[in-house]
Every structure is written in C-alpha cells, then in structure tokens.
Design a protein that fits this description.
about 220 residues; mainly alpha; Arc Repressor Mutant, subunit A; 10 helices; DNA-binding; HTH-type_TetR-like_transc_reg; DNA-bd_HTH_TetR-type_CS; TetR family transcriptional regulator; TetR_C_22
Amino acid sequence: MPDTAENQAKEQPRRRQARGERRIAQLLEAAASVFCTTGYTAASTNAIAREAGVSPGTLYQFFPNKEAIAIELGDRLMHQMRDAYGEALAPVDPATPLEEAVGSAVDRFIAFNCEHPVFFALMHGPDVPGRIAEEHDALHTTLLARVEGLLSSLLPDTSPADLARTSRMCLGLYKAGLELTLGHEGAEREAYVQELKNVLVRYLEPLVGERPGREEASSPRTP
C-alpha cells in the first residue's frame, strides 16, 4: 500500500506538468493565429486568450505578457527552422543538376513557412521584441553560412568574396519570393513557387556553367 500511495504522489506532478504543456501549446497556437491576423503590435493578451477559449487569468498563469508569448513562440519556431534548413541546405553531390538542388531547398523552406505563417509575421514585423530580432539576426547569419555551404558544392572554384555575394543575393531573392508566395493560395501560390525557382536557377546558371545533368535537362525536346 505505501508503494501505491508513493507512486500516486509522483504521478500527480507529472499529470499537472502534462496539462500545463498542453495549455501552453494551446495558447501558443492561439497566439500564432492572432499574430498572423492582426500583426504583433495590434495583438493583445485578451485577444489571444479569447482565441484559445480561456480566461485572461488562465493565460497569465503561464505568460506574464504578450512579449513573453511571442518570445516562446519564436524560440520554438526558430528551433524547428534550424532543423528544416539543416536538411534543406546540406552540401550536395557536385553532379546534382542545378534545378534539382535549387528546387529541393526552395520546396523545404516554402513548406515550412506555409505550415507556420506566423514565422514570417514575427520575424519580419516592424515591432517584434528585441530578443526575437536578435535571434532572427543570428538565424540569418547561420542561414547565410548554410547557403554558402550549399553553393560551394555547386561553385567549387568561386572565390570566398564572390561566394558570399552570390549567397546574399540568393537569400535576398528567396525572401522576396517568399513574401509574394505567402500572399497567395492554391494554384497561384504554386505558380509563384515555380517562378521563384526559375529566378534562382536563371541567376545561378551562368555562374555554374555546364555541369553533369545540365546538358540533358537544357536540351530542347524533339517533337
């Protein structure tokens, strides 16, 4: 009997912790919806609590203010984003066709941002909390290094200065295309994704030159 009572006593904190984690996830999901709809500046804790279907008092048990919610949400999203771009921007076999290398990376990033539209809303908003801005700057630096790593496998003879410049251009083109892509849905969104791939491929094509797989892909089809 004492063992049973002791086990029950240990189980109660675990259950409370699990309920707390579920509530936090519920509040963060609601915050993501509100931030996407109104933007960070116009959002309020009352609106987030209302979206989550809880009282403001319940929200304040877990987060002291809107900024704390945004920071927690941003931290989780950036952790997921690092996992996503770690896979998307790994160096590729030099024989990989340019269209395949670009298409694979773009698809992974677009998929992440379409699944988490609040990421763009938080990271590119005009009045995001300072900590999020700092984390975003660090993410941008790491992302740029990953892009350079990917491009170095496609442009092995390029100087470091030229590689850095090309990487910044690719990242800038991607961000511009991402904003346009997220502004559309369905077939039109898919069309913008393809346009983004086309822009990147056509920018990189003269730099990459003839590569294995390129000749067949670029040759005109016979009727």
